[in-house]
Amino acid sequence: MKALVISGGGSKGAFAGGIAEYLINNKKNEYDIFVGSSVGSLLISQLALNNVAHIKKTFTSISNRDIFSISPFIVNDKDEACNIRINHFNTLRAFLKGCNTFGESKNLRKLIEKVHSENDFEQLKKSKKVFFTVSNLTQEKVEYIDVTRCNYNDYLDWMWASANYVPFMSLMTKNGNQYADGGFGTHVPVLHAINNGATDIDVIILDEQNQGNINNNHYQNPFQSLMGVFRYMTNQIALKDVLIAKLGGRQAQIDVKLWYPKNNITNNPMYFNPKLMSQWWNDGYEHAKTTKPICHCFMANGEIKEM
Asked: What share of the chain in percent tops pLDDT 70?
């Protein structure tokens, strides 16, 4: 079976969308399994339905107002550096409201419902295997949500939870547990595709393969420091995910194609700018068109071949 796996990455998901557009529309790849983490979960349902134009229109038109009901930061995008700092007034508002995070992303939940209709959901359940990765913070474990076992409202909730980058976005309480961004536990959920029978996998990873030059500047404010720590953590998790996939792939012959961006897309993945995201979507499409992925073939005898 053929699978498409998309990692987390915030606004960088637009780049993944461009790669997926090329793979689905131009390469005519037909995937049986879709697995997403964080922003990957926001993409995969419409991609599975082959509604590429629909999800492209959404991703290239949203702004932070479409994500945050209470935004925890202030963006100064007058220069190319795009300085971001904590919005102390809004974080105080969140505190006074009794929120358990610095900001709220209820607007994202509304956007998800607007983009993904109940009819879409019913079609999806009948046609594809789709999984969202979520982090169960209460039980301190990763969970993979099978769309076929959801009702419509649960489907929307789990997609939202997978993309909630806590503590800047909402923490979802469901079934007595609190859930957050799937990337906190599994940034690149390729092993789940393998465990569900995938033998030919395209994996879109929204971080550079070699990340030595992402940030040469010192952090100037608490927001930059916190984002830097999270970026470091997710990079390490991504490396772990790919290594585990290699070990898991030794049980049978599996072809894995890893799609990395050539350069760091942005240091501010929590900033959603329609103009930039339109460019990143086009960049992803051109990247897939002109660049070969890193290919591994995991043999049944345990051998790993780079192709």
From this structure: 80
